[in-house]
Amino acid sequence: MAGFTYEKNLPHQKRAIESVLSVFDRVYLKNGSRDENPEIVFSGSLKADNLQKIQQINGVSDIALSGSNVLDITMETGTGKTYTYTKTMFELNRVLGIFKFIVVVPTLSIKAGTKNFLQSPTLVEHFRKDFAGLYGETEIKLYVVESQKSKAKKSSMPSEIVRFVETDDTQKIHVLLINAGMINSDTMAGKDKGNDGSRLIKDKYHVPFEALAAVKPFVIVDEPHKLPQGKKTWKNLLKFNAQFILRYGATFNNQFENLLYRLTAVDAFNDDLVKGIRAFTEQIDGDNGERIKLLDLDCKEATFVLNKQEFKLSKGDNLSRIHQAINDLFVSEMNKTTLVLSNGMELKKGDTINPYSYSDTVRDKMMRQAVRQHFILEKQLLTRNGGRIKPLTLFFIDDIAGYRDEQNQLSGSLKTLFEQMVKAELESCLKTENDEFLRQYWQTALNDISKTHGGYFSRDNSDKDEKIEQEVNEILHDKEKLLSLDNPRRFVFSKWTLREGWDNPNVFQICKLRSSGSETNKLQEVGRGLRLPVNEYMARVKDHEFFLNYFVDNSETDFVKKLTDEVNNAVVKPIEFIALTDELIEKIRTVYPDESKKSIRNKLADLTDDDDVFLENGFAQTRKLFPKAFESAGSLKNGKITRSGDKATKVKMREGKYDELKVLWETINQKALLQYKIGNEIEFLKLFTQFLRENTDKFTPTGIRTIQNEIRVENSRLTVTQIDGLHDETFESINTMDYPAFLLKLSQVALIQRSTLHQAFVAVRNTLDITKYLNEQTITKIQAGFDRWLLLNSFNAFEIGYNRVNGSIHPTKFTNAKGQPLAEINAADLGTQFDNEHNPLAEFLFESVFYDSALEQENMIDKQVREVVVFTKIPKNSIKIPVAGGSSYSPDFAYIVKTDLGETLNLILETKNVQDNDSLRQEEVKKIAHAQALFSEISRDVNVVFQTQFEGDKIAKLLNQSLLKS
Which InterPro entries match (predicted)? Predict the structure, then answer.
């Protein structure tokens, strides 16, 4: 089976990687021995300046910088942290020549997952083939440090450490993988019994820490909240004497050093980088609020109270003695302060538990519902177009014996009940299913129910049962096999062992059949199922809104509130500026690059006084004028975390309405290819040369510069002012690549002929001496800059056109493969906000109002226009108009209008929540022009008018204007 298909250059991952690289902008590299990393040297205040600039660009300047060598990147669970730091290693190797990294993980389970990822053949192929030769034949060579089998041998120096330290193969990226427990071992400190100092690394070191420090490593820390500063592991980690420590995690507990980039849970949910969450909570009516309270305990006996009656329990006693609803829950351990139950839950004096949470009735109901929902998911995901998706369901249990009932010897065991539920559900589904593949897939499962599930528990590591070994290997190490449609296994059982260090993108359900114990981070609990799924071809699917079903018992009725609060409270409150400072202007310009400092000041002139201090509500008005500059401070969108039973996630299509829309809908769903009307390579050369001439000041030379700063006392605070001279004589150029290598890499990345590149650089040599800028940053800036230049100069410097492609139109967001209208679609495809106070106009295609902006909402509910026959919001990602530079564009509404004179108007509408065309960014103006060009081409067959609606424009007026145009 094919391995996972990795996506390159995902925006949120790319920003994290670029943020790390930018720390080392304009550094000096000092080379030492061949088996060591080059030493990174910063001049003057360059490091601090780079860090401040990165923080401003990424909107994290509210977090104070430190003088340490620790760089922090926070990315929410499920957004690809491991891939991000892996590609960062490739980029640091490519740009700076760093080739030795130490990856530190907190636990063995995370270590196993990281090992599998870094050794994946598909990852090797991804970096070798998917980047147009950018990394050449470079690949990762992994060294895994394991605990020593025998301590009695004369020398116990780990061989992997020896090989890692001594290698001088700079053509590979060498990664030493080590867990926290191993870092804290006597072996690493050179103190174990077998280390008598006779075996030396590089004829010099007998202590592993010292040998590793000698290679000047870069250290990467995964899950930094589990390795807190000041504790033993962190103190030992510092013995690596790393040049830099890169920490990647979703949780930092606000213990940041130098925060470079922050992708919060809010960002991840709102940008559809992870699944949404749908919670299923069991609610028990009439339990009268009964709670069992731990009143007292010592090392031998615990005192519980229920309804004023006391119960004395010792180690091994079952809590069923206290309440009949409880089954198979007993006292496991206790001391004077803490009692541990058999499910891992820790209780302190005064803690309470709900007895009904441990009732078999509740457990069975949750399990039955999870099984039923699973097969509903299978029907949805295995009959979809664009590649089938195999869903998995993860059960967390504490009844391991009841699950490992291999011979079905335990009457009414968990395993027996579960298999009965699966069998009953499959038989029920097969009675009404007509899809041929699904029938065969379900019949295979029904033929041997035992193969539909598997489990992994910590004790399985020492189990010699061949069947269990196969299950464990498949669950832990072979994601591809687990996701194969030839494999009937779709249910996985565990006792929280898989809570960290393991994930599978196709986990669509998590069912907590027993409480997880002490109060934990809710986002971490659901983390095993947050990743976006992959289809049968192992490609990530992101053009659809997916949800993780999460089943919890009645003891967690506030699960949704706690999770939502946790996500929103993690958002750092935005800085409230009291004046229009240079920092605020740069914050705005980062998101609005077409705005100059002068234009921003002019627009805000009425909001500030003569000293640039904001007048009353001045800053609030600034946020309205430039909303995108402050978006990171937003909160979780509605609908990203819901309860089962909350408002339906589907919206119904009104019967018969689609027929009137059919011709227009099929017309605009035809595929089209963008054509650059550039006559020949000579004309293209002229365009590229023009781009270079207009951007000569955008490139960064390779070299080292001395920066001079003045420190003064102002208003009882130290302030730093940079001193610049008119003639900078402190810059020294350093070449990092020769001209032919530069041309080759730029040609591969930008997809421009080398001869054309050379001719262009020769043509501009009087104003841009490219030999001063032969570095990776220049290659990146030319590629990204030229793409944007093509978009901004389309229709002026060159024309574009569209060629329609013949092919199947259906299925679409509105129709099935036969072109028949769907009964309902995903509401999230129409908008993230729901209007539960208004019904849509009678002509609207759908029965409910889902929208993304106030202007869209107004169009759906305000002032009926008699001539409109039908109109609709165009779903997200349904129509993508290709535009110059490689991106795409999607309009918002489609209208069918018929006049009394028999005229028919097909209108495509783009809504913009700004005052007029002058308020649009240049990119938006150009994208709209592309849409007009495409619909002009389409109008040769079907008359289609494209119109832009601005704030204050009424739809009736726009329709009249469009009728006149048509």
Answer: Helicase/UvrB_N, P-loop_NTPase, RE_endonuc_C
Alpha carbon distance 592, 629 (integer Å): 8
- Hey, what domains does the chain have and what are their CATH numbers? 12-263 (3.40.50.300), 292-353 (no CATH), 360-569 (3.40.50), 582-625 (no CATH), 650-673+809-965 (no CATH), 679-797 (no CATH)
Residue with the two structure tokens 């590609």: 87
Residue 189 CB neighbour total at 10 angstroms: 16
Residue for token pair 């000092």: 30
pLDDT of residue 461 exceeding 80, the answer is no
The tokens describing 489, both together, are 């296994």
Record the pTM: 0.69
| d(C-alpha 480, C-alpha 477), whole Å | 9
**pLDDT tens across 837-895, in order?**
888 999 999 999 998 888 888 889 887 777 888 999 999 888 888 999 888 888 999 99
Long-range Cβ contacts of 303-309 (<8 Å, 24+ apart): 306/355
Give the Cα separation of 467 and 270 in Å (integer).
Answer: 42
Which of helix, strand or coil describes residue 676? strand
What ranges make up the beta strands (E) of 18-79? 28-30, 39-41, 70-75
677 forms bridges with which residues in the sheet? 799
Choose among 824, 274, 278, 812: nearest CA to 542: 274
Distances (CA, A) of 924 to 482, 514, 844, 919, 928: 44, 52, 27, 10, 6
Cβ–Cβ < 8 Å for 849, 857: yes
User: Do residues 541 and 387 lie in contact, with contact meaning Cβ atoms separated by under 8 Å?
Assistant: yes
Residues facing residue 714 across a β-bridge: 717
pLDDT tens, residue by residue, 767-818:
988 888 887 778 888 888 899 999 999 999 999 999 888 888 899 999 998 9
Kindly report, residue by residue over 481-539, the tens digit of the pLDDT: 899 999 999 999 987 656 666 778 999 999 988 665 445 566 677 777 888 999 998 88
Q: Is 345 within 8 Å of 515 (Cβ atoms)?
A: yes
Cβ contacts of residue 389 below 8 Å, gap of 6+? 381, 382, 506, 533, 534, 535, 536, 541
Q: How is residue 376 written in tokens?
A: 């509903």
CA distances from 695 to 28, 497, 759, 760 (A): 25, 55, 17, 13
